[in-house]
Amino acid sequence: MDLLIDTMEVWLAQRDDGYTSGNMFVYYSLAQVKNQDFKGPDFFVTLGVPKGERLSWVCWEEGKTPDVVIELLSPSTRTYDKGEKREIYQNQLHVPEYYWFDPFNTEDLAGFQLQGGTYQPLSINERGQLISQSLQLGLVRWQGTYKGVTTTWLRWAHLDGALVPTAEEQAQQQAEQAQQQAEQAQQQAEQ
User: Fold this and answer.
1) Contact call for residues 44 and 22 (beta carbons, < 8 A)
2) Which of 11, 22, 177, 179 is spaced 20 to 30 Å from 77 by Cα?
3) What pTM, to 2 d.p., does this model score?
4) What pLDDT is attached to residue 186?
5) Per DSSP, what are the bridge partners of residue 130?
6) How far is CA 42 from the centre of its chain?
7) Contacts of 112 (CB under 8 A, 6+ apart)
8) With 60 as the cut, is the pLDDT of residue 32 above it?
9) What pLDDT digit, counting tens, does each position of 95-110 carry?
10) Where do the H-state alpha helices sit in the chain?
11) Where are the alpha helices (DSSP H) in 68-118?
């Protein structure tokens, strides 16, 4: 979840709008809020909304539901995430895109796009991506190390296959570029 949020924050920093979070309550029914009518997606992103911190996502106050929701499956949530929760995202929240990923069985990756009120499955493209039409980014399985853990992660990538960097990776890339520019300038001065 943190890797998805970290990279999405870097991507959103290039925009004037948008919000991403995870494990945050999304309230979707004003009439039934007393009945605890909410969900807590592992990851979500919403475009076209002001940036800024929130304690929860209240759909009727924000004026929209999330554009993309991702659930990370576990043995205790698998059936619910693939069944009832998916139906709530489809029928009550009308989330345009819904994905799930099992971090312990990394072959279990699926994506769906809302078409005519029903989720239609997405196909993985030749780059191994599930393409988000809302974001124009791909979700990929990435083998690597994040926060000291080496495993297969779910990660955002650009359509050309380049990974969306975390803030740490972006800072490292900028430092390396500055170093290269300094070396080039020194070589030119010596010539």
Assistant:
1) yes
2) 11
3) 0.87
4) 81
5) 139
6) 9
7) 86, 90, 97, 98, 99, 119, 120, 121, 122
8) no
9) 999 999 999 998 999 9
10) 2-12, 59-62, 78-82, 84-91, 167-190
11) 78-82, 84-91
